Amino acid sequence: MRRTLLNLLLRTLVKPIWRRAPTIELLRRRAAMVDRRFGVEAADADASFEQLSADVGAQWFGPKGRERGGAILYLHGGAFCVHLPAIYGGFCMDLAHLTQVPVLLPAYRLAPEHPAPVALDDCELAYRWLLRAVPAERIVLAGDSAGGNLALALLQRCRRVGLPVPAGAVLLSPVTDFSGEGWSMHFNEKRDVMYTLEALDMVIDHYLPRMLADDPQVSPLHGEWSGLPPLRFHVSSSALLLDHSLRAVERARLQGVDAQAKVWADLPHVFPLFGGLPEAAQCRAEMARFILARLAAPMPMQMQRPEIDGNRIALNEVDFLQ
Questions:
Q1: Above 60 in pLDDT, residue 274?
Q2: Which end of the chain is more exposed for a tag (fewer CB within 10 A), N or C?
């Protein structure tokens, strides 16, 4: 029932915005309103600010003594153009509480003022900064949508420039390929409750003016996957970006990477952000279990495996890639 009501709300209030080709100013005003309405202010005890460089700041969430137990580097979504600090702060705070591992949320610079590859450069800066305190094998990378794109591009850049890769990565419906639309961009155009093809066009216009669409720095699907750590993807069956995850898993597996995807039935894009959904809680729990496994940390008692109902479709059950 909650899923049905949320889908109806998003289809009515969010999806029409993209049909009208919003300006970046309008998009950011709407995002700020949503952030104020649905965001969660982090308690002082659970959050602190870090200035990583003159241009890039970041916020820590979670338990103290972060350098001893490892860290999660989370790269936020927002079409590369907006940031929702309260919403992402609440999400990162919950992830830190579930894992008892602190989360670093950098505020990378946004397009169109800072087109690609500036955001990726800032994410590399944040990772290098984190490596000064935490060894790579005690870091897990995570990101959603645009942030998932940046996470994958950062992993590939680490391999290219000789940086140690983190212990693993969790990707929530990442953008992986700007060079072609993919089958789900057409099949799910009406089924996706939030986004339209016009939304992708806007992202391309704002984020890619200086780069080729198949450059791995913006389309990691076309990059080098060999040597990357274990990857876990979560995506909705009705998302425009569904095949962005499935093709990425296929490409990663062909190059010897431990990559798996879980396809969840008929949920909004990046549904784990919607804290009131039972499926969001289940997905967050699965994220936390994977993170703890990659960090070889004991699982807290509150992280026992939840009941899984028929709303989740495992990749091997739908036989997308077998």
A1: yes
A2: N
